[in-house]
Fold this sequence. Notes:
By secondary structure, the protein is an alpha/beta fold. The chain has 12 helices and 22 strands.
Amino acid sequence: MVEENRVGGVCLNAGCIPTKAMLYCSSLFVSSFNGKRYGLNAQELTFDETSVDRHRNLTVTKLVKGVENLLASRGVEIVSDRAESVLMRKVKCRNCEIEGDKIIIATGSCPADIPSARFDGEHIIGSNEAVKLKNAPSSVLIVGGGVIGIEMATYWASIGKSVFVVEMLDRILPLLNDPRASAIVTESLKKKKARIITGERLEKCEVFGDAVKCHLSGGESLEVERVLISTGRKPNSCVASSDLFQKDNRGHIVTDEACRTSVENVFAIGDVAGEPYLAHKASHEAEVAVSVISGKSYRKEIEKIPSCVFSDPEVATVGITPYEAEEKGLKVVWGEFPFSANGKAVSSGMIDGYARIVARKPDHVIVGGQITGACADILIAEISLALRAELSLEDLAETVHVHPSLGEILPEAARDAIGKALHK
Ligand SMILES: Cc1cc2nc3c(=O)[nH]c(=O)nc-3n(C[C@H](O)[C@H](O)[C@H](O)COP(=O)(O)OP(=O)(O)OC[C@H]3O[C@@H](n4cnc5c(N)ncnc54)[C@H](O)[C@@H]3O)c2cc1C
């Protein structure tokens, strides 16, 4: 394995894990802050960013070491070098060449800046810098209300920083294709005093000493300490020359269902092979590629990959939404159930949000689910399993769940879809 940085990639070092370590700290802060109602009386609650930094670093180091140990125990040799080009049966690195019958390209993606704001690593930053800041900026403009922008907005706003989000489309989290989920997260960010500006772009920004003056397309100017550009990422695909490898118009290496590139013995997985940019999509493709290389038949199933935005509340989704079904002309039925009608949610003060189950109209086979609410990351797994096992609304409705539990929301939503909701 050729790796130019620490093993673990973006996920462990600058993505999923550091952000979740930070969000755990801020959610604990928010819960404690709101704890009076539940009997928690703290004299003076403060948020210590040095401890957050320590927790984040310890978490990352522990998990990176874990991966290093796993690789060592399986006899994987790590070559610390930069791969420059992948050929038919050879990888040319800066300092060496490695030959192999089969090659897997897993070079990932990196943050992309925009013409109106180029990264300078200090005032105008990307996610790589944002997740490593020892001290949060006192004010920040987040350009792009996608997953990364909203998770960072949730963290910074939760710890009392002044947060502005500018999104050029008409709502944040537009790619979720779920206006209701976007509205709930918008409300929650507003409650944390973040300002959400939609339908506008960042036109220009100028750095003056320690501040950045940002001009928005609506004519407004904002002065902030830092600007986070979270408008998108680009694939690290330059190792695969276009002479040899087919690429799409955004530079992803094109692969088939077995993760094979246009060069038969070369596979590509993860972000470099296209969206969704998710760690578990990369792992899934890794399993597919390795199975195929070892002679088994295995096909990737991207449409059944769940995702979760770790906002407050979380938003998780798998399969299709009713809005997508309508766009595609698919006949579907769906049911919803609010967290506010679930016993566990009410007793734990987690009443924001809802779950939705979407199924094909003729046979009620489940084709999608969306959960906006507490523990959505965990709850969505049941719907993922339902999709994989092609379960029906009736299967889910008749599955007995622990009472009281958030899980009861799912059979209730399934019952609602067939007109038999018990508690709605
Ligand atoms: C802030 C943030 C939060 C995220 N949160 C989540 C989340 O909660 N859940 C989730 O599922 N996903 C999340 N993601 C996305 C997730 O991190 C990526 O989808 C995932 O890391 C992709 O894995 P990968 O193996 O394709 O690439 P990467 O993780 O990017 O790994 C690529 C590796 O290749 C190395 N490399 C690149 N080029 C070369 C070269 N030429 N030679 C040698 N080595 C090279 C890099 O150093 C890197 O280690 C997040 C991303 C970000 C930025």
